[in-house]
Amino acid sequence: MNAPAITLTLHDSRRVYRPGEKLSGQYFIETVDGAETQAAEVSVLWHTEGKGDEDIAVHFFDRVSHDERPGLDFRQPRVFSTVLPNSPLSYEGVLVKIRWCVRLRVFLSRGKQLVEERAFQLGEVPPARAVLP
Amino acid sequence: MSGAEPRPAPESGEPRAALPRSNPFSTRFIQPGAIPYFFPPGVDAAQLVLRLEQGGGWGEIIGPHGSGKSTLLAELFPRLSERGKRPLLFTLHNGERSLARHRAELAYADAKSLIVVDGYEQLWPWNRALLRRFCRRRGAGLIVTAHAPMGLPRLYSCAVDRQTAAAVLERLLPIRSSIGQADLERALATHGQNLREALFELYDLYELRQPSQGA
Question: How many CB atoms lie within 10 A of CB A80?
Fold first, then answer.
């Protein structure tokens, strides 16, 4: 089976967004046989990264599937958009970081999944840096 | 395109380089399930599943702290599911002495269930006996992890050697990086071959070696 080609783009190709701004993009999935893709979920989310337990919260979520919409063609671009919240702002700490991204999860036949992400920054909080004791 | 598991982004390349890089030793990249278990030559997950079935679905995984016991469990789960088993994982923390708070989940255990207790030695001996009796009555399988033998059929003994540690590092750092094999070996020596703690030490080292913004 050839792996599907996933195209996920943000419309204005920006790296930094301000709170309250609109973020929009689109995706499409190219497969040899279009029926191979069962469903796709696009999320706009933040998660923490660091040495401890990690947190995640989904700000925007949209799922489309063959079950709900028979005949759905994933090769056709599907647009999504959301207004970004005021917080949490992206943060580049030492012990913990806050990361925003658009995540596309594609569900294929036989339980396989593929994930594609586009990271972006919400706000412009200066990064922290580790220093030697 | 990436697979379903998170992996650190390459340290170079466009267009993502404009955003901060992930620390490759973050929990999300090193937790069980995020990296595969690296078996020594001649051993693989399929063999262990077969060994478990030959042991009547009961077995123990033994090894010191940070030797990969939980990572091995995560490696086995999908294969056990393919064999029709339903793993029920209970991870014990901070000296949890009983499974009382998991009673609701245990209530549905049946012959297809495989009860997995990560940190089994933390249970009181009486509660271990109760659990074994419960599994026998339900016909359920039982896999436990512990730091010392617990009297179940030995499924596997985990240990961290130089080759395994190098494979993990290579997986986390697919291209040139500020962290190298010598750093890992120093960290392992500091933490008595506890790979988990060694990787967390490398997390700090990675942060220290990051160039300042604008440098």
Answer: 20
